[in-house]
Design brief:
globular; 197 residues; binds fe (ii) ion; 10 helices; mainly alpha
């Protein structure tokens, strides 16, 4: 749903996060679908490792990125008609850093009407759909992630019938906005996503 605003959270809450335990408790309570939960954990791992390896952030910053990934679809399972609004309001009520809430609010600009602005926003948007497509690809390979190559993923990206619900336009748009490309992203995702189960 369109969120109808661009400001999220309270600037006074800058630097505040949930603890890992609190975030996992929220995830378990809200997301009953194991496949969706896995998707969120995979995106969380990508965000964390990208923050550490590519953005030069430390543990605290990396946890903020990871938390955005971990909770970005938290309301999709039980409240699809309130998708994004409900989790945004929940995190605002819990006084979470506005940057994390903005990243979640802007992870689908075409759906929520919020433009990705920060590095965190843009990478969450970029990883989301691509992560889903690569996971779908791993499920159809007898070897799963083992031996997976970017070449195979590129073929699936071109095949519009494969994982047809994954928006190729969003992937392109995300890469353009974040200044990344498949050469960088595909090996990175294969490496870090395969470790999450
Ligand atoms: Fe997602």
């Amino acid at each position: 749903m369109l969120l109808g605003r661009n400001q999220f959270g309270d600037p006074g809450d800058k630097g505040r996060t949930l603890t890992r335990e609190e975030a996992n408790t929220l995830l378990d309570a809200w997301v009953l679908n194991d496949r969706l939960k896995l998707h969120m954990k995979q995106v969380a791992a990508l965000m964390r490792n990208w923050a550490l390896e590519r953005e030069g952030l430390g543990e605290e910053g990396a946890w903020a990125w990871e938390m955005a990934g971990l909770l970005h679809d938290a309301d999709w399972d039980q409240w699809p008609d309130q998708h994004c609004k409900k989790i945004v309001e929940e995190l605002e009520a819990r006084h979470v850093d506005p940057e994390i809430i903005h990243a979640i609010a802007s992870h689908g600009p075409a759906h929520f009407g919020v433009e990705p602005e920060s590095r965190m926003d843009k990478m969450l948007y970029t990883f989301d759909e691509l992560s889903g497509l690569i996971h779908a690809y791993s499920l159809m390979r007898p070897e799963g992630y083992a031996g997976m190559e970017p070449k195979g993923i590129k073929k699936r990206l071109k095949d519009k019938a494969f994982a047809a619900n994954v928006s190729r336009d969003d992937i392109q748009d995300g890469m353009q906005r974040s200044g990344t490309d498949l050469e960088i992203l595909l090996p990175f995702i294969i490496q870090h996503q395969s470790a999450v189960s």
